[in-house]
Amino acid sequence: MVNRTAGTRRAEILHAAADLFAARGFHGVSIDDLGRAVGTSGPALYRHFPGKEALLAAMLLDISERLAADGRERVASASGPREALDALLRGHIAFALGEPALITVHDRELDNVPHPDRRRVRRLQRGYVEEWVGVLALLRPATPPAVLRAAVHATFGLLNSTPHSAGELPEERMTELLLGMGTAALLAEA
Amino acid sequence: MVNRTAGTRRAEILHAAADLFAARGFHGVSIDDLGRAVGTSGPALYRHFPGKEALLAAMLLDISERLAADGRERVASASGPREALDALLRGHIAFALGEPALITVHDRELDNVPHPDRRRVRRLQRGYVEEWVGVLALLRPATPPAVLRAAVHATFGLLNSTPHSAGELPEERMTELLLGMGTAALLAEA
DNA sequence: GGCCGATGTTAGTGATCGTTAACCTCGGTG
DNA sequence: CACCGAGGTTAACGATCACTAACATCGGCC
Fold first, then answer.
1. Which of B84, B99, B108 shows the shortest CA–CA distance to B28?
2. Cα separation of B44 and B36, whole Å?
3. How far apart are the C-alpha atoms of B136 and A1, rounded to whole Å?
4. On chain A, which terminus has fewer CB atoms closer than 10 Å, C or N?
């Protein structure tokens, strides 16, 4: 029963769809566009997803789960809060630089996800944010949690902006830059 | 020939359209939606704009011009580079907090603007960025301009993310927070 | 070797889209 | 007071949309 290429097509579609959604927005991409991007034409997509919205939902659930799981692991295996923050930043930066389309779709298209899935995505996102807030709270115990949460969201904006200014700097240099800026921003007194 | 309400409808449409575009994306909003949002229905819009894309173009041109002009003035009337940077940050933050929908549309929908206007918007944006880079270059003379440009783009991502985490903090507190984070991020060595 | 499920195809469905056409109203103005 | 332009209306057009139906292909399994 094991098919060595099982899910290959599905993943291929998701990957192509991420690029298209990031470039033109969910409503700016048609089913035929999606099919054309993977070599099949049009409605072949319905063999893999029940519909366009379900495809987006699968995509956002996957990203959210990966981010949340990765964040949890990195914090758990860090030797201290300062190291945990560094690990979180490096993980998020690697993700943003490695999969810019996914990051873009992730914080733009949540409203187009149908309801039950949207709640799950939001819960995962909230969990990820709280991972960051928990670490920050140890480093800045005097700052109220609401402020820390806002600071984390702003930092995500900083890190996630890289897709829009991509290619101007080599990846390693960009990683350094974002790490320095993110650390400084998060630890700044305000 | 002076009409005391001239342009009122036009501005009303642009304002409502900014909210809708920010919430659902350019392709997710129909002409009928836009009409309904200002009390008229549907095609009345064509009395004020030649089409949907032209409406978006007018909107983005307006924002870009305001940002660029405001930035130029603030830098020109600052007493030094450190004060200029502070003025730029405060101006951008006030804009992002005051018109979150416009800021959102501004960095998401450029690709939907028809070509001649898109070039004009891009030129205005580039001018605005260079205003920031010029100030930063005085404060960090050892850092290559390409890095400064990337840092400025990342900072815009930080400042522009506020629409997505709005309402969690009072405006004055949010201004303080963003100012501190933005300053720290821009002046961080990397 | 006949069947079958997985994965395509093309043609067509009704809904919705941006846009145009044709017509109405009405507050100035010559 | 006739007129006219500004700003609305509804109806309709063709294009495109997400999705469905009906049919084709084919590798693996009894």
1. B108
2. 10
3. 61
4. N
A41 token code pair: 């034409």
C-alpha distances in Å from residue A167, one per residue of A27, A162, A171, B87? 27, 9, 8, 29
Q: How many CA atoms lie within 13 A of A20 on its CB side?
A: 23
Tokens 């206007």 belong to residue: B117
Q: Are B31 and B52 in contact (CB under 8 A)?
A: yes
* Residue type, position B14, single letter: L
Of B134, B160, B159, B148, the residue nearest B186 (C-alpha) = B148
Q: Of all nucleotides in the shown strands, which has a C1' nearest the CA of B34?
A: C18
Residues found in chain B: 190
A186 and A100 in contact (C-beta within 8 Å)?
A: no
Are A168 and B149 in contact (CB < 8 Å)?
yes
Q: How far apart are CA A12 and CA B189, in angstroms?
A: 40
> Which residue type does A95 have?
F
Asked if A24's CB is within 8 angstroms of B28's CB, the reply is no
What would the pLDDT profile of A22-72 be if each residue is shown by its tens digit? 999 999 999 999 999 999 989 999 999 999 999 999 999 999 999 999 999
Q: Where are the alpha helices (DSSP H) in A39-80?
A: 52-76
Question: Which pair of structure tokens corresponds to residue A165?
Answer: 């200014």
